[in-house]
Amino acid sequence: MVNYVDKELSWLSFNERVLQEAENPSTPLVQRVRFLGIYSSNRDEFYRVRVADVRRLANLTSGGKKQQYDDLLNRINQRVLKMQKRFDDCYRQIMQDLASNHIYLIDETQLTEAQLAYVVDYFNHHIVNYLDPFFIDEFAELPTLNDASIYFAVELRLSDDSMRYAAVAIPSNRLPRFIKIPPRKGKRETVFIVLDNIIRTCLRSIFRGLLDIQSAQAYTFKISRDAELELGEGITQNHIDRVSSSLRRRNQADAVRFVHDRAMPDELVGMITRKLKMGKYDSYTPGGRYHNAKDFISFPNVGPARFLYPPLKPIKFQTHGRDIFQAIQVRDIMLYYPYHDFHTVIDLLCTAAIDPQVKSIHISLYRVASDSLVAAALINAVRNRKEVTAVVELQARFDEQANISWAQKLTAAGVNVIFGVPGLKVHSKIISIVRQEAGTTRYYSHVGTGNFNEKTANLYCDISLFTANQEIGRDIANVFDFIKHNYKRHHFKRISVSPYNNRPTLVDAIDREIGWARQGKAAKIQLKCNNLVDTEVVNKLYEASAAGVEVQLIIRSMCTLIPEQPGLSENIKAISIVDKYLEHARIYIFRNDGNPEYLISSADLMTRNLDYRVEVTCPIYDPGHQDFLQQLFDIQWRDNVKARSLANGQSNQLANQERKRKVRSQDALKGFIARQNYQNEVQMPEETDG
Q: Could you give the 3-state DSSP secondary structure of residue 302?
């Protein structure tokens, strides 16, 4: 019996759920285009990180292990190629649906005379100076190719019938990918052309008349490189320099995937891949004419309002005339983004920055917005002579450069910036504010499941807890003390902290439910997170199922556990929800013989999160907040519009189809949270058609 799903194949099942949203005709049309972009962006990261890991292991092992990794790479590539065909079919269908609504994304062969003149003029005034072609042949080394870019491989036939090859980067990082052009004369339509096709239209011009060109053909290609950063041991003042150096090395890392226009001549494909030193463990993906479909994430707003999701107006937390500290004193605050307004976090920091009673602010920053109001509040706190410490995680994957920049800006402003713990990423989402009140030191704390990023808070479903619980406050302060002085060992009274007691806390809670079940009592575990891949936790859940514990799992992305398998997991059910907002919250609920335990966490159920990161899991004590978390989970568990079952080989069939009434949990939660804001007693929302 197979007890686990390969996490890489499980991840591909997750990305298939994203593709299903693009394929779904009930998804608003422009949003379908954007789901194609999300799917493509996810797939790029998959190759840069997860496939690169498997490839590295295949190269470093031998014998049976090596064969396992070889087989896994083959299965990955076969699955990706099948999904690529679905992607191409979906793209063509969406283009037809746009055209039926008088919205066109045309190529260079479809331009009218007037449109051609417009495109040539646009090329000469806005594009040509961004193009720097370079020649390629069998003898010269390729320049370094950036895996964030797309390229044209250009085949040139000169007037003497000789052939030359060149390449040029498409400057989509500096120019818009979708350019609006005039409609056809007398037509009421909206017309876009992709930047690539403007360059194709004027392809000979990029060589500035230096060659006598008889014909020119362009074929798109892109590469994915191994994204792993290798850093030396220890964190010192030179940490920024070492991360910067590693980022530069990332640009020269091994290419692990070559995606190309399937019309590209074999000779040209072979020349480029040989120069990239690609081998048998690498992926070669023939595709359509266009790559970097991740740019579809920013496809323009076009057409009627029904082509987009209706805008969500977040509910602002009301302090009813109190300042934010007085409000937290009255009762813990729990917010659920994006339904609640993230600016309550900004309000907390801005108030702390000018409050004479506040003495210090500590915060952990993993990913922040490019024009972060969080950072601005910290800088203002320094101006007001507060002691401010920011833990900036320089190894937040793909945000390293942005975090280096923020570390430098914060340091220049007088913030005490520290870079975490050797060998551990600081992934916790915590704030500790120390305030002097009537001669007493009091702690005000934030514990959350998401980053302090006001931009992603509009798209990610995450939980924030603001509390004046002094035991939790001292625990959070001790987390920062551990990060500063990692030789110290603290006893955490209320919270659990990776890498020390997060794993034991979760395992003990599962064991406790197993004990209740073996005593013949009702036992239940409800877990919601992004990833469930840790073998010990998976095995414990299998043990719980065997003991009769009811287990409900809502796992957005990777899940190596196999639910509903006879003899292994009969009492485990698992679903995944992909919808308009990204499900990112981690909620862990244990029935505990009628005295349930509710936890929120920054940690997924992955070995890295439990053992190799600084993560915080916090209990929720307020009965109203416990009830909110319970109903949040139960509403999502009843979803039968966007929830997919993870049973049956993660085939992504819609879940709960036996229910006649439709429940789309993200819509149901919007109404539930709006009503809860005005009612003292939390009510379960009605099932509604949707």
A: coil
The torsion angle over the Cα atoms of residues 192, 194, 200 and 201, rounded to 10 degrees, is 20
Active site residues per annotation: 427
What are phi and psi for residue 135, nearest 5 degrees?
-85, 145
Tens of pLDDT along 180-213?
Answer: 999 999 999 999 999 999 999 999 999 988 899 9
Most distant CA atoms of the chain, gap in Å: 90
- Which H or E run contains 442? strand 440-448
* The overall pTM is greater than 0.70: yes
Measure the CA dihedral 10/12/18/23, to 10°.
-120
Tell me, rounded to whole angstroms, the distance of Cα 466 from its chain centroid: 24
Q: What is the pLDDT of residue 397?
A: 52
Q: Which helix (H) or strand (E) element contains residue 404?
A: helix 400-413
The helix or strand, by DSSP H or E, that contains position 178, with its residue range, turns out to be strand 178-181
**Rama region for 567: left / alpha / beta (φ>0; ψ in -120 to 50; rest):** left
Burial of 497 (0-12, 13-18, 19+ CB in 10 A): buried
Contact partners, residue 531, CB within 8 Å, separation at least 6:
7, 555, 556, 557, 558, 559, 604, 605, 606
SS (H, E, C) 347-389: HHHHHHHHCCCEEEEEEEECCCCCCCHHHHHHHHHHHCCCEEE
Kindly list the structural domains of the chain, giving each domain's residue range(s) and its CATH number in brackets, ordered by start. Answer: 7-246+254-307 (3.30.1840.10), 324-489 (3.30.870.10), 497-676 (3.30.870.10)
> Residue holding tokens 């917005």?
369
